[in-house]
Amino acid sequence: MIKVLAVASEIYPLVKTGGLADVVGALPAALHTHDVAVTTMVPGYPAVLNASEEWAIVATLPSFFGGRTTIKRATVGGLDLFALDAPHLFDRPGGPYGDLRGQDWPDNPQRYGALSSAAAELCTGLVHDYLPDIVHVHDWQAAMTLAYLHYSGLPRPKSVITVHNLAFQGQYPPTILGSLALPQRAFALEGIEYYGMIGFLKAGLYFADRITTVSPRYASEIKTAEAGMGLEGLLAGRAASLSGIVNGIDSQEWNPAVDPKLAANFSTGTLGPRARNREALEKRFGIDHDASPLFCLVSRLTWQKGIDIMLEALPHLVESGARLVLLGSGDREMEAAFRQAADLYPGRVGVVIGYDEALSHLMFGGADMTLVPSRFEPCGLTQLYGLRYGCVPVVARVGGLSDTLVDANDAALTLDAATGVQFHPVNAPMLQDAITRAIALYRDKPVWRAMQKRGMQLDLSWTSRAGAYARLYRELLA
Ligand code: ADP
């Protein structure tokens, strides 16, 4: 067994704001079948600590920024966890990163600096009988672990950093250096400095033995100025250590044959019951009950996700005779614009503003197509749920959306390989064109059914995807 310490700020099902949590929550079980034992270090948010009565203190740390701090260990729902119990840092109302109004906590660098520092100590023998072979950190919140390890001067495990979204880098003014308990010399180009600031993600990318991101296409995109968000130079320089591993999905949680969140279960052999999910959706969103194509969109409502592009293409979708149901939250103006669109197109556009895991299942299980018009997308999960649920993805050809679908062009249709519709460049006219193509395909029932079934039969499970991480670990230890 290879022993891996994973470090992350979210883990499904305990704390989730996005795809990061899904990956961190799914990998341990999937890696177990590849002889890799993962223990995950997470912040001791109330949702984490309240999930078990079995937490045992395994270490007491010198106080982080004026508060009592311990590391606790427990197994929660099959996940072997270390939690950094520091109530003054993590026991707060609101989300993991900000208050109830969505404002980032001003001490986020110290909060995640503390997480990273504690993780580094776990890697150098803080806890009796625990020493990982590999430390695997996720995103900027955990990235600084590798800097703490470097400057500790102690023998350290091999390291991997996974970037789930380069847009979030954790950059802070150099004046906070003292509060992070890192030596002054760390503030250097060959360290944590990044354009005059302290860069958490930069530090991780600089010190990691291997860098992965969540699709091969995104791994190559981020070496360019267009998608590199300022880190393209560093990433291009580390190209030999950079690779992409596509995310899997939890194929038990997302199994249309048994999913209790659906109105009716179905499988490749019996697509018929999807109609009952469609009806349930029509009722829930208060839209017309008819045979016209039904698009769905489940997303954070942000610029990255191309939600403004969707708004621009919406009149075309409705004029083409189709309908849209949207579930999402985020940018207040985008939320308001979609509420207005629902009023403007009664019966044709239905909108639920909010976060609703169960409803999202019903949407993939009942709608005909799922839209993902992202400007950039490291991997993307909703297109994978769409594939698994026979809800054909219509997506921008970027990042993981490019790697996980075969566009229904003439060649792919002839070869029976098509699984979705892709468009590029990412703008409203091209999205409109993709919507038109998808509707035409939908009207050709044999072709459409075949496309649905092909997507449903793909192996999208973590069990197979985790093999790539296991190989990476073994290479590092060889
Ligand atoms: P990102 O992590 O950038 O938000 P991903 O596609 O990788 O994008 O992951 C988003 C995850 O969050 C998916 O599991 C998606 O179904 C879910 N999701 C996003 N918005 C909502 C919502 N409003 N209600 C329910 N689930 C949502």
What does this structure look like?
It is a single chain. The chain is of the alpha/beta class and 478 residues long. The chain folds into 2 domains: 2-248 and 463-477, 3-Layer(aba) Sandwich (Rossmann fold), CATH 3.40.50.2000; 274-459, Glycogen Phosphorylase B (Rossmann fold), CATH 3.40.50.2000. It is 38% helix and 19% strand. It has 19 helices and 18 strands. The strands form 3 sheets. A 9-stranded mixed β-sheet has the order 3-4-5-2-1-6-7-11-12, with helices on both faces. 49% of the residues are buried. It binds adenosine-5'-diphosphate. Residues 18-19, 22, 298-300, 327-329, 355-357, 360, 379-382 line the site of adenosine-5'-diphosphate (ADP). Adenosine-5'-diphosphate binds next to helix 1, strand 13, strand 14 and helix 13.
Entry keywords:
Rossmann fold; single chain; 2 domains; 478 residues; alpha/beta; 9-stranded mixed sheet; 19% strand; 6-stranded parallel sheet
